[in-house]
Amino acid sequence: MSDEIVAVVAPIAMYWITSCLYAILGRQEYRLHSTEEEEMKNLVPKREVIRVVLLQHLTQAAIAFAVFTVRRDGGGAAASTGAAPAIIVHSWQFMVAMAVFDTWQYFWHRLLHSNRFLYRHVHSCNHRLYNHPAESLVLDTAGGALALAVSGMSPWTSACFFSFATVKAIDDHSGMLLPGNPLHLVFANNTAYHDFHHQLRGAGCNYAQPFFVSWDRLMGTYVSVAIVRASHGGLEVVPAKRRTTRETTSAPA
Fold this sequence. Notes:
Elements: H1 3-25, H2 35-41, H3 46-73, H4 86-114, H5 116-128, H6 133-151, H7 155-172, H8 182-186, H9 191-197, H10 214-219, E1 225-229, E2 235-239, E3 248-249
Antiparallel strand pairs: 1-2, 1-3
Transmembrane segments: 6-25, 49-70, 82-101
Pfam families: FA_hydroxylase (PF04116)
InterPro entries: Fatty_acid_hydroxylase, Sterol_Desaturase_Related
């Protein structure tokens, strides 16, 4: 199997593996929303979600193959390593890709909220259950292609990057705070942070995704969150300044 095929297939496989794992681990005490609330808000049938996901993955695979083909035919392999050790080069490319992807996603995400037409006809799908195909194409696929082109990642590095980004995105949208989750310990932009954005009171803030909160802080759209015990037995995300004397858990830094 060629490196390019691994780079294309790995993130898609990681999506289905991680999604199944979260479905298995979804105990009520770890959830930010009760089962009843999720069923009430998830208006799109699961069959339709699966259809949209498969369409997105086919589009993602086709564009990824095209990008790798153009790079290979044009001699545009990964950026020259020079005298630097490979681990330093790959780590630098990984960080560049994270910065590019975050920047692309923040400003497109904010535009999708500020433009009424785009929100009503495209982005509102994300707040009901899953991305509109057009949003997935622009935010995820095009943003990923840009991150790949700018960073100069090799196929193997891009396989690691996009697999990691996939796991991160699933966790951010899972609505679950699993104990000991390393993503919540390392990233301030995590499940609780993004869950607040999906609340009515948080729709105008916390746009940043999927890695850092830098653009929210720079653009004045950052709201810190706290995690409290909810009446349904699980957890609830509230603005940090509204933390009450109810039993609380520590919000990830």
